Amino acid sequence: MRNKGTITLSMExxxxxxxxxxxxxxxxxxxxxxxxxxxxxxxxxxSPKELMSFDVKPGGTFKYAMxxxxxxxxxxxxxYLEVDENVxxxxxxxxxGLPDAPPANVWIDLSDYKKxxxxxxxxxxxxxxxxxxxxVYDGWSQSIRLLEVHLEENN
Length: 155
Known about the structure:
alpha+beta, Alpha-D-Glucose-1,6-Bisphosphate, Chain A, domain 4
């Protein structure tokens, strides 16, 4: 760990949330472009469906691009490592603009929460992050918040 002001960065970190939807619906939102386009980006940025491709199976690949209001694109890609429907989605996550950087590993674990909700634990290893970093951690935290909002409105 290193300290950036008052922000502690770690090479592996987890964001945990309770999502107000059943696991099956959360899984669908994590694996279909119709849902992913609504939340797979930080606030104020878009992930257009036409820039997405997801083959959700072990060994399958994905790619998408986040687009800022000025039109700048931030592409990402990866490979699915584990696909356990409604339970776990594990994948690599990388930036094609940084071919020498090793990809991060991501695990998203789902479990039932009372009254039809879902516990979501998002763990990323390989890129430093921490709450308040205004980078990868905060971006994923905002994305997961957008997932919550999307499912509140479309459950």
